[in-house]
Write a structure and sequence with these properties.
Elements (H helix, E strand, L loop, with lengths): L6 H7 L3 E6 L4 E4 L1 H7 L11 H4 L4 H8 L3 E8 L4 E12 L2 E11 L1 H28 L8 H13 L6 E4 L6 H10 L8 E5 L8 H6 E2 L12 E2 L1 H4 L4 E5 L6 H13 L1 E3 L6 E3 L3 E6 L3 H6 L5 H7 L2 E4 L10 H16 L4 E2 L1 H9 L5 H15 L4 E2 L6 H24 L2 H19 L3 H8 L3 H10 L4
Parallel strand pairs: 6-13, 6-14, 7-10, 10-13, 15-16
Antiparallel strand pairs: 1-2, 1-5, 3-4, 4-5, 8-9, 11-12
Helix pairs in contact: 13-15, 14-16, 17-18
GO biological process, one term: regulation of DNA-templated transcription
Protein name: Fis family transcriptional regulator
Organism: Aneurinibacillus migulanus
Length: 453
């Protein structure tokens, strides 16, 4: 069989559209598949100039350059379709005489791709909304707190070990839970343990678990430890600064090797948990005193996050009160509002117990309140008295300083003292910049201004 005689039959048998043009762009042939796919009968297009029908057709470029276009994508305006094509020049005795394009209509695929992109965009927006909802309890107007929340958001989806530090009651566990829920591990367990409450004699069995028969009176079948219970999720080690050096060594070994062994066991188990540690102590001070291992500190504080005390973010009191009362109203079945007088007293009080103390005070108030709103008399006396003392101290201090120094001088002195204090309690200058919530440039300008080395 001579293939030349059956060339048209071969082209007509193809399921892909075929278009052949001459060197002057005249359309000399289209196969049946072309007419079917694009709805254009052959007699309406053959012998017409393609340069007039579709001036931007990619096959015209092949005519100009003599170079093929393989796996080429283009959009045909005259047909309103997206196509995928292989276009090659036609040569006769080495001379270009035309070009042929074998095409697929990919409009449906392109449409599906656009729909997929829309769903991806929608999914991204939903994830962002979910992210914001997860961190809604940490909403703040205070620069220091907003800095801490921004860092938490950035690292939530990583595997970095975090160290949360701040005073008792600032909400370190709330931070840890938000980070966990916003991470890829969010659908896995979140296990929290207060290290200060764990007796040294039970440390290993509680954290690592034990095998059956590991010791006299041990539970039949053994017991899963907290590391195993948190498998795939997050383990929150609160009050990590309370651990003895002996127990710190055991934690360090597990973190380094990423495996653990049950008490009484002989096999190691892989560690698949994210560690978030927290402390209300100055670990660097403990390191200098020989009470905390420096290697463990660096292992835990890949990303340190300082959570400011409530006295430094009193502008957040309305947000915090609203969040806490939202739950207490359901528990106590009371719809109680807060008057401006109450807020003013709250703002003058220093809240040494931080958010935990605020929660305690609000629960006490809602439990005894018989009205639909709080009044100053509902506030515990120690809060009212503390607010009065704070107001008196503030007034006398400001008056005394004002007599001796101008307002710019007071501001500069306060700024210098804050810089010196933050530098003392920070491991690095980058950490100090993060705590202060200012730019690196502004930080170094202030160091130069106050001649702080």
């Amino acid at each position: 069989m001579k293939l030349e005689k059956h060339l048209l039959s071969i082209l007509e048998s193809l399921h892909d559209a075929v278009l052949v043009i001459s060197k002057d762009s005249t359309i000399v042939y289209v196969n049946t598949a072309y007419s079917v796919q694009f709805g254009v009968p052959a007699h309406k297009i053959v012998n017409r100039k393609l340069s007039q029908v579709e001036p931007g057709a990619r096959i015209l470029e092949v005519i100009k350059t003599g170079q093929p276009l393989i796996n080429d994508y283009s959009y045909l305006h005259s047909l309103n379709v997206h196509i995928f094509a292989n276009i090659t020049p036609l040569l006769e005795k080495g001379e270009l005489i035309g070009a042929v394009a074998i095409m697929k209509d990919i409009s449906e695929f392109y449409g599906l791709q656009e729909e997929l992109n829309k769903y991806k965009t929608y999914s991204t927006k939903l994830e962002e909304q979910l992210h914001e909802k997860i961190f809604s309890l940490l909403e703040s107007h205070a620069p220091g707190m907003r800095q801490a929340v921004n860092v938490a958001k950035k690292v939530s989806d990583s595997e970095a070990t975090l160290l949360l530090y701040g005073e008792t009651g600032v909400g370190k566990e709330v931070f840890a839970r938000a980070i966990h829920e916003a991470s890829q591990r969010g659908d896995k367990p979140f296990v929290a343990i207060n290290m200060a409450s764990l007796p040294e004699s039970l440390f290993e069995s509680e954290l690592f678990g034990f095998e059956e028969g590991a010791f006299t009176g041990s539970r039949k079948g053994g017991k899963k430890g907290l590391f195993e219970l948190a498998d795939g999720g997050t383990l929150f080690l609160d009050e990590i600064g309370e651990l003895s050096l002996f127990l710190q060594a055991k934690i360090l070994r597990v973190l380094q090797e990423k495996t653990f062994m049950k008490v009484g066991g002989t096999t190691t188990h892989p560690l698949d948990v994210r560690i978030i540690a927290a402390t209300n102590k100055n670990l660097q001070e403990l390191i200098r005193e020989g009470k905390f291992r420096e290697d463990l500190y660096y292992r835990l504080s890949i990303v340190p996050i300082h959570i400011p005390p409530l006295r430094e973010r009193k502008q957040d009191l309305p947000i915090l009160v609203n969040n806490i009362l939202g739950k207490l109203r359901i528990t106590y079945k009371k719809q109680i509002t807060v008057t401006q007088e109450v807020y003013e007293i709250f703002e003058r009080y220093d809240w040494p117990g931080n958010i935990r103390e605020l929660h305690n005070v609000l629960e006490r108030m809602i439990a005894i309140c018989s009205k639909s709103y709080f009044v100053p008399e509902d506030i515990p006396s120690f809060v009212r008295e503390g607010a009065e003392r704070g107001e008196n101290i503030t007034d006398s201090t400001v008056q005394s300083k004002t007599n001796k120094m101008s307002l710019p001088g007071i501001i500069e002195r306060t700024e210098r003292e804050m810089l010196e204090e933050v530098l003392k309690t920070s491991r690095t200058r980058t950490e100090a910049i993060q705590k202060l919530g200012i730019s690196r440039k502004a930080f170094y300008q202030k160091l130069k201004k106050y001649n702080i080395k």
